From TrEMBL:
The keyword Coiled coil does not apply. It is a multi-pass membrane protein. It comes from the Bacteria. The chain crosses the membrane at residues 30-49, 70-87, 99-121, 142-162, 182-200, 220-243, 288-317, 323-344. It comes from Vibrio rumoiensis. PANTHER family: FRUCTOSE-LIKE PERMEASE (PTHR30505), FRUCTOSE-LIKE PTS SYSTEM EIIBC COMPONENT-RELATED (PTHR30505:SF0). Its main location: membrane. This is Fructose-specific PTS transporter subunit EIIC. Keywords: Cell membrane, Membrane, Phosphotransferase system, Sugar transport, Transmembrane, Transmembrane helix, Transport. Residues 19-354 form the PTS EIIC type-2 domain. It is found in: Cell inner membrane. Pfam families: PTS_EIIC.
C-alpha cells in the first residue's frame, strides 16, 4: 500500500514537472517574438503615439512588423511549441493551428496555453494508440496525426474553450482598465512580489507572461509594474555590496557590480548568485523591494509598451508613460532591497559567515 502510494506521488511529481517544462518551452520560443515585436511597436511611437495610423510612413511599417506580424505570431508559437514539447514534431501543426484559433477568437495567451496542451496530448495519444499496417506507417506523422489532432484541437477550441476564455480575457482587461488606485496598487504589489520571488523561475515567469499577454490587449500598466520590479533584485544586490563592503568578499563585490548592470537591463537573474548563497536574507529583501516598485508604478499610473529592455527603453520616446515617476518607483524598490539586505547582512554572525564562505 505504502509503495503504491509512493509510486503514485512520484508519478504525479514527474507529470507536474513535465507540464511546467512544456509550458516553459512554449514561453521560451515565444519570448523573442514578444521582445522584437514589442520594441518595434515602441519604436513606432518615436514618431508620435498615433503616427502609425498614417499609411506609408516608417511608423506604420514598424507597427506592421511589431503589432501585426510579431504579435500576431506570439500565441500560435506559444501553443505550437507547448505541443511540440509534449508530442515532438507531430504536435507542432495542431499546436500552431490551435494557437491561431485562440488568438483570432480573442482567447489570448491563456487560450493559447490551453490549445497547446490539448494539441500536444491529443497528438501524443494518436501517435501511441493508432496502429497502421507497415505499408501505411509513413502516412502517420504527415497525414493521420496532424489531421486527427488538428480537428480535435480546433473543435475543442471553437466549441468549448475559446468563447469562455475570450470572455474571461475581456473581463480581465475591463477590470484592469477600470481599476481604482487601491486595486491597482494591490495588483502591482502582487505582481512585483511574484517577479522577485524566484528570480526567473516559474512564479517569475507566470507574472511576466501575464503582463506580456495584456500588452496585446493594449493594457500597459501591469507590464510597467512587472519590469520595474524585475530590475530591483539585481540592482538591489549591487547596492547592498556597496553599502556593506566589509560583509562581502572581493569576488562578491565584483559580482555586485555585474548584478547592477544586469539589473539595468531587466535581467533579475543577476541576483541568483547571492540568493543561492544566502536565500533567507536575499529573497525577503528582493520581494520587499520588488513589491514596493510594482505597487508604486501602478499607483503612479506608469505605462510600458515594450516587454523588455530595462532602463534602456527610456531612450525610446513615448515607450514609457510617467517616466519620472517610473524611475522613482525603481529607485525606491532598489533602495529598500539594497538597504534591507545590507542591514540583514550586518547582523550575520561570524559562524554564519564562515559557513557561507565555505
Amino acid at each position: 500500500m505504502y509503495q503504491t502510494t509512493k509510486a503514485t506521488d512520484e508519478s504525479t511529481k514527474i507529470e507536474l514537472g513535465g507540464v511546467y517544462k512544456h509550458l516553459m518551452t512554449g514561453v521560451s520560443h515565444m519570448l523573442p517574438l514578444v521582445v522584437a515585436g514589442g520594441l518595434c511597436i515602441a519604436l513606432s511611437f518615436v514618431f508620435g503615439i498615433e503616427a502609425f495610423k498614417e499609411e506609408g510612413t516608417l511608423a506604420a511599417a514598424l507597427m506592421q512588423i511589431g503589432g501585426k506580424s510579431a504579435f500576431a505570431l506570439m500565441v500560435p508559437v506559444l501553443a505550437g511549441f507547448i505541443a511540440f514539447s509534449i508530442a515532438d514534431r507531430p504536435g507542432l501543426a495542431p499546436g500552431l493551428i490551435g494557437g491561431f484559433i485562440a488568438a483570432s477568437s480573442g482567447a489570448g495567451f491563456i487560450g493559447g496555453i490551453i490549445a497547446g496542451f490539448i494539441a500536444g496530448y491529443s497528438a501524443r495519444f494518436v501517435v501511441q494508440k493508432v496502429v497502421l499496417p507497415q505499408s501505411m506507417e509513413a502516412l502517420k506523422p504527415i497525414l493521420i496525426v496532424p489531421l486527427i489532432s488538428s480537428l480535435f484541437t480546433g473543435l475543442m477550441l471553437i466549441y468549448l474553450v475559446a468563447g469562455p476564455v475570450a470572455q474571461t480575457m475581456t473581463m480581465l482587461t475591463d477590470f484592469l482598465s477600470g481599476m481604482t488606485s487601491a486595486n491597482a496598487v494591490l495588483l502591482g504589489l502582487i505582481l512585483g512580489a511574484m517577479q522577485c520571488f524566484d528570480l526567473g523561475g516559474p512564479v517569475n515567469k507566470a507574472a511576466y507572461t501575464f503582463g506580456v499577454g495584456l500588452l496585446a490587449s493594449q493594457s500597459y500598466l501591469p507590464m510597467a509594474a512587472i519590469m520595474a520590479a524585475g530590475m530591483v533584485p539585481a540592482l538591489g544586490m549591487g547596492l547592498a555590496t556597496y553599502l556593506s563592503k566589509n560583509k562581502f568578499t572581493k569576488t562578491e563585490q565584483e559580482a555586485g557590480k555585474a548584478s547592477f548592470l544586469l539589473g539595468l537591463c531587466f535581467i533579475s537573474e543577476g541576483a541568483i548568485p547571492f540568493a543561492a548563497k544566502d536565500p533567507m536574507r536575499v529573497i525577503p529583501s528582493t520581494i520587499a523591494g520588488g513589491a514596493l516598485a510594482g505597487a508604486l508604478s501602478m499607483f503612479f499610473g506608469c505605462t510600458l509598451m515594450a516587454p523588455h529592455g530595462g532602463l534602456f527603453v527610456l531612450a525610446i520616446p513615448n515607450a514609457v508613460g510617467n517616466v519620472g515617476l517610473y524611475i522613482l518607483s525603481i529607485i525606491a524598490g532598489t533602495i529598500v532591497t539594497g538597504v534591507m539586505y545590507a542591514f540583514l547582512k550586518q547582523g550575520q554572525s561570524a559562524v554564519e559567515a564562515e559557513v557561507e564562505q565555505a
